[in-house]
Design a protein that fits this description.
The structure holds two protein chains of two kinds. Chain A has strands spanning 3-5, 10-14, 19-21, 24-26, 32-39, 46-52, 60-61, 64-69, 74-79, 88-96, 103-105, 109-114. By secondary structure, chain A is an all-beta fold. In chain A, strand 7 (60-61) and strand 8 (64-69) form a beta hairpin. Classes of the chains: A mainly beta, B mainly beta.
Amino acid sequence: AQTVTQSQPEMSVQEAETVTLSCTYDTSENNYYLFWYKQPPSRQMILVIRQEAYKQQNATENRFSVNFQKAAKSFSLKISDSQLGDTAMYFCAFMKTSGTYKYIFGTGTRLKVLA
Amino acid sequence: NAGVTQTPKFQVLKTGQSMTLQCAQDMNHEYMSWYRQDPGMGLRLIHYSVGAGITDQGEVPNGYNVSRSTTEDFPLRLLSAAPSQTSVYFCASSAAWAAGANVLTFGAGSRLTVL
């Protein structure tokens, strides 16, 4: 069975600084997707970034980028130039591309951006 | 474009009562799912569906029932509410098979308290 681990329950960063959130996962699959979702205080979950396992190039979305290390089963999220609006809970998620259509989420990292 | 609509947003139940959380999406998504979010445990999959008439169990299905009679609707039924079902519930959908699929669109969540 797949598992997703986020070892940092809480983090804080100064506005305009860079922060990296960690995520590791365990799977025997070769093809899968990895995601980072953001949940601000409003509770609405939104996608931050997505990575296909077969792509070696790390995904980027504006200030958000990932460091995908397939062999190490690591998928960290880097937030550059942190903004107050980045304050949220961040969830790492895994989904395999074959068989059952299930997402597995980590337990989340609560990020606070300080003014 | 409403996206994913969940009702009600808040509900208080007594132990043993039954209720239905409604979920509707207007994006013609094949995949729909229900999660519960509890502190320190992330999001856990309750049930999911890959199309009308097809449902399957997730990680924590006990005490919950689902059906998918139409593409748009995926209600979650609590058969006999228990205090352990106090949680925030999220419905999420995605296009299952198209390019760029697998990204979940979430509803706003439903906070359920069972006394």
